[in-house]
Specification:
InterPro entries: Rossmann-like_a/b/a_fold. The protein is of the alpha/beta class and about 230 residues long. Helices cover about 30% and strands about 20% of the residues. The chain has two domains: about 170 residues; about 40 residues, no CATH class. It is built from five helices and seven strands, in the order E-H-E-H-E-E-H-E-H-E-H-E.
Length: about 230
């Protein structure tokens, strides 16, 4: 399989189930992407062309399960694919009220244009793989400015357990839905302030910054230490 410098991973599994499957997903991604991995979350995305229309991005709400999924993703990435610069994208997570349109009026530029788009989505029929790949490339191109030669990789068939594992995940989803905390919206604040050295950005820093973004409605301020406070680092 070809290797790519930069990729974007579209995760479609319900947020409840991501902690169960993120390790095999990242292990598979590490065999395709070499340097930078962007992660785009769209729980429940149907890439099989329901109704024959190109799937579009939607807003997802900043619920408690989202913060848990982000924390687990960065934590597991440090163990499974430590060589990758993993970055969770939050452009489709609203800080306040959302308008009638979707989260991306135009494709958003990233610091590195993705050369490959990957997904954990599993087609119901293996013969749909070509169509799903086409929809996946169209979806990624609607969200972000990608390489004109954007490739696509369906990770689903490579993931350990296949359809049986997916069935177990759905059972977990039902159990979680019956619990008290599953879909609680995170309490948000007008202003959020964090501080630190941030001299060598790692997964814990990224988790802090991502979760802080989820909590901020108006302004997010970052204080960065320098000079004397960095001498011992």
């Amino acid at each position: 399989m070809s290797m790519f410098s930069t990729g974007v991973l579209v995760l479609t599994a319900p947020l409840h189930t991501l902690p169960l499957r993120i390790t095999p997903v990242l292990s598979s991604v590490a065999r395709v992407v070499q340097h930078t991995l962007y992660v785009h979350l769209h729980p429940g995305l149907n890439l099989s062309g329901g109704g024959g229309a190109q799937p579009r991005p939607v807003f997802i709400q900043p619920v408690a399960d989202l913060s848990t999924a982000i924390s687990r993703l960065y934590s597991n990435a440090a163990d499974v694919c430590g060589h990758l610069d993993v970055r969770v994208l939050l452009g489709n997570v609203p800080a306040g009220a959302t308008g009638a349109g979707g989260p991306f009026p135009a494709p958003q530029p990233l610091s590195r244009a993705p050369e490959v788009v990957l997904t954990d989505y599993v087609p119901g029929d293996p013969e749909q793989s070509s169509m799903v790949s086409r929809y996946l490339r169209g979806y990624a191109g609607h969200c972000y400015v990608c390489s004109p030669t954007l490739a696509s990789v369906l990770l689903g068939p490579q993931l350990e357990g296949g359809p049986q594992a997916a069935g177990k995940e759905e059972e977990v989803v039902e159990e979680k839905r019956q619990g008290p905390d599953g879909g609680l919206t995170l309490e948000a604040y007008s202003d959020v302030v964090v501080g630190g050295t941030f001299d060598r950005l790692h997964g814990a820093h990224k988790t802090l910054l991502n979760i802080s973004c989820l909590l901020a409605k108006r302004r997010f301020v970052i204080g960065v230490c320098d000079q004397e406070m960095l001498k011992s680092q």
